[in-house]
Amino acid sequence: MMNSYHFCGIGGSGMLPLAAIVRATGATVTGSDRALDAGRLATKFAYLKGMGIDLFAQDGSGLGEGKTLVTSAAVEATIADVVRAAELGLPHLTRPELLAELLNAARTSVAVGGTSGKSTVTGMIGWMLHATGADPTVMNGAVTKNFVSADAPFASALVGDPDLFVSEVDESDGSIALYRPSVAVLGNVSLDHHGLEELRVLFGAFLSRARKAVVNLDDPEVRAMAESLPSNHLIGFGLDSPGATLSARDIALGADGARFSLTAAGETHDVSLAVPGRHNILNGLAALGAIHALGLPLAPAIAALARFAGLKRRLETVGVANGVTVIDDFAHNPDKIAATLATLTARPGRLLVMFQPHGFGPLAKMGNELADTFARGLREDDRLYLPDPVYQGGTVDRTRGSDWLADQIPHATHLPDRPAIGDALIAQAEPGDTIAILGARDDTLSEFAAALLARLG
Fold it and tell me: What is the pLDDT, as a whole number, of residue 409?
C-alpha cells in the first residue's frame, strides 16, 4: 500500500469506513466532501477528525505531491480535487480499487454480494466473528449497531486483523470483478443498477473466483449460477430448497425478531434473531453459511447472532411517540422495498410512508418495478408520499420524476418539498400507525425521521 491518501467524498457510506481502515494501517489520510463545504453532518466530520484525518474544502487544496486520490462513483471528473490530482500527475484509485487491494491481500476474506441484504449479512458475519473471539476487519456500507460506542458513533468499519477481512462488495459500477475472496456470499440477484444479463455475468464470475461460494438456492437467478459450479465449491442455503446445506424450518415471525430451526450439515440448532422479517432469516442463513464455509463451529456463532442488533437505517425504529412508531429505512430498490413493506404491513395499524427516490436515473431504469412494488405492497388504508428525487447536479435526464411515479400508484401523493410531507404525515398520524421514511443516498433522511418523532412527542 502507498502511505498517503486523499478521499474525495469522504463522508459517503462506502468512503468513511474505508478511510477509517486505511488510517488504522498507519497511512496518512485526508479528505474532502461537498456536505462538509455546505456545513452539513458536522458530527460525522468531527468523528473523522478524531481519527487524525485532516479535512479540506473540495477545491483541490487537499492534494499535493506523494498523495493518492481516492474517489467514489459519485465524484465527477470535473470536481476540483480530481482536476488538481490530474494536474499533479497523482495516482488515482476508485474506492473499489483500493478496497480490492486490501481484501485480496488478506489471507482469509469474505465478500458479500447481491442486490439486497449485503450490509446486513456483512454486519452479521463481522459481529459473529468478533463476538466469538476472532479479530476481523469489517468494511460495511452501514453502521453496525453492535459496534457503536460513544467514541465510534459511525461504526460502519471495524478495524482488526488485516488478514481476516470481511466486506460487502458492490456490483453497481461493475467493480465486483476486482475481488478474489476466500468465501463469496450471494444472497439474491434482481434488477437494480444493471440489466439481468449483465448481472449474471458479473455475479457468476464472482462466485467462480472464490474458494467457497455461499449461495441462496431460493433465488432462481442465484440457483441457476450455482448449477455451473462444482458441488465441493458450494454451500447452499434456503427456506424451501432441497439440497441446501443450511435450511430453516418451523419459522416464527415476530414484530421485533424471528425464530427458526436450523438444519446444517446434519445438525439441528434453534436460532433466534433480534431483527424482524422473513428476509432477515435468509440474511441469517447467508451469514451462518459464511461461518460454516470458514470451517468455524456454528453453535457459538448462533449464540452471538441472537445478540445482533441490526444496522442503522435498516428497518430502524427511531422511536414511538403518542402511539405512533417512526421507522427509518434504506430501502430504495424493488427488492428492498418489497421486504420492508412485507415486514411492516404484517404489523397492526396503518402505514404512512415517505419514499424519496435516490435519483432520476434509477427512476428511469426501474420506475415501473418500483410502482408495481408499492401498488402490491401497500394496503387500502396505507398512504405514500413522494418528494422529488435526490439530485446532486449533473446532466441526468429529469423527464421522469416523482410526479410520474405518484400517478402509477394508488393512494400516492407527490409533494415536491419534504417539509410539506412532514406536515401531512403529522396531520394524518394516529395512535397505532407507523410512519416509515424510505430512501438512500441522503443522510438527512435520518434527521427528517428524528424531527418527525420530536414533533409527534
Answer: 96
Within a 10 A sphere around the Cβ of 320, how many other Cβ atoms? Answer: 14
DSSP string, 8-46: ETTTSTTHHHHHHHHHHTT-EEEEE-HHHHTT--HHHHH
Query: Distance (Å, rounded) from C-alpha 141 to C-alpha 139?
Result: 7
Distance CA(310)–CA(435), nearest Å, equals 19
CA distance 183 to 164: 11
- Dist. CA 269–CA 299, nearest whole Å: 7
| Helix (H) / strand (E) containing 115 | none
DSSP letters, 303-367, are: HHHTT---BTTSSEEEEEETTEEEEEE---SHHHHHHHHHHHHTSSS-EEEEEE-S-HHHHHHHH
Question: Among 14, 178, 204, 23, which Cα is nearest to 101's?
Answer: 178
The Cα 30–Cα 9 span in angstroms is: 11
**pTM of structure:** 0.91
What counts of helices (H) and strands (E) characterise the chain? 15, 21
**pLDDT for residue 193 is more than 60:** no
